[in-house]
What we know:
- The chain has helices at 22-29, 66-74, 80-83, 99-106, 123-128, 145-156, 167-170, 204-222; strands at residues 3-9, 33-39, 52-53, 63-64, 87-96, 110-115, 120-121, 132-135, 189-190, 193-194.
- By secondary structure, it is α/β, with parallel strands linked by helices.
- The strands form three sheets. It has a five-stranded parallel beta sheet with strand order 2-1-6-5-8.
- It is elongated and about 70 Å long.
- The site of adenine has 12 residues, from β5.
Amino acid sequence: xxxxxSVITLYPEMFPGPLGISLAGKALAxxxxxxxxxxxxxxxxxxxxxxxxxxxxxGAGMVLRADVLAAAIDxxxxxxxxxxxxxxxxxxxxxxxxxxxxxxxxxxLGAVIVCGRFEGIDERVIEARGLxxxxxxxxxxxxxxPAAIVLLDAIVRLLPGVMGNDQSGTHESFETGLLEHPHYxxxxxxxxxxxxxxxxxGDHGKVERWRxxxxxxxxxxxxxxLMPGGQVxxxxx
Length: 237
Ligand code: ADE
């Protein structure tokens, strides 16, 4: 089963971009996932194929028209395989993206991803087409395209057969609920710095315990909100 991504964007030339390189690019070439872009401009109105208009109620900026975006979404078709794919809208207002959400998406048939631009999108199309807003963090990008690339990168590496060494996914940050322990490799001494002795002891049990302790220490220090019973992020405000 191939994960199918359809990206609705004013800038189709931004894709595949980084997703055409390295792990994601190889997976794309191998058919582990597919990517189609839908050029929003083609659904614009009038001679200039306008996709936006001034906000009702006044104010600065432009708003993406509901009819234009709906036409782009509807062009993807309502076949069963499309109807079952979640429709996502990349937006700083959205559900914060985390590894659990990425995993859930990677287990599905794919996604239709709308990249926002402008000050906003007419609320009616979000409701009428059932768009789920997704945010990649509490900062504002100039458009949803880089966010869509981040989302797809995180999904694609979890698809069956994509990550060479399946083990390397299970110990990493967030898959265990903790940040990753520190890593070391040769040379044994570099600029006067040595490798923690336990890692060269050959005692796998001791190594595992050390790594778990280090992961807990780092998480407690840097991300107390991720610790069991830790505070909610932003909760201290
Ligand atoms: N578009 C603009 N900012 C964004 C963000 N933080 N997450 C997702 N999409 C966005």
